[in-house]
Amino acid sequence: MATASESSNETIESAQQDNQIVSGAYIAEHKQMEKIIKEELPKLLNKLEKETNNLLEARKKLEEDIRTQEEKKEARIKEHIRHHGDMMQTLGAIEKRMKDLLEKLSPTKS
Q1: Where are the annotated coiled coils located (predicted)?
Q2: What is the value of pTM for the model shown?
Q3: What span, in angstroms and rounded, lies between the C-alpha atoms of 105 and 102?
Q4: Which sign, positive or negative, has the C-alpha torsion 6, 12, 15, 20?
Q5: Three-state secondary structure along the chain?
Q6: Over the range 58-90, which residues count as b (16 or more CB within 10 Å of their CB) and which as e?
Q7: Could you read off the pLDDT of 50-82 as tens digits, one per residue?
Q8: pLDDT in tens, 5-17
Q9: List of residues 6+ apart from 86 with CB closer than 8 A
């Protein structure tokens, strides 16, 4: 039969073994985290930076395209207004000629 001292020693040895297992797991986990921090995170950060730059370029191009479309739209509107102005001048000139012709045809002007 085991004495109290032997039982106590077995408990201590078992606790020490458990402690070594936990310590080993902690060290392995720590090394894994260190590897991730030193190797994987910089790669992910570089990828994120590239994607961010791509998005910024795409936004810049989109803003430029929108600005170009707005400029084209504004130019079309101005051209349309100018065209209507030209038509109004033409109609004014036609109206004046018609009045002149009607005046010539008027019986009071003999």
Answers
A1: 41-79
A2: 0.52
A3: 5
A4: negative
A5: CCCHHHHHHHHHHHHHHHHHHHHHHHHHHHHHHHHHHHHHHHHHHHHHHHHHHHHHHHHHHHHHHHHHHHHHHHHHHHHHHHHHHHHHHHHHHHHHHHHHHHHHHCCCCC
A6: eeeeeeeeeeeeeeeeeeeeeeeeeeeeeeeee
A7: 999 999 999 999 999 999 999 999 999 999 999
A8: 767 777 777 777 7
A9: none
| Gap between the Cα atoms of 88 and 81, Å rounded | 10
- Residue where the block lists tokens 């051209």: 79
Structure tokens at 7: 């039982």
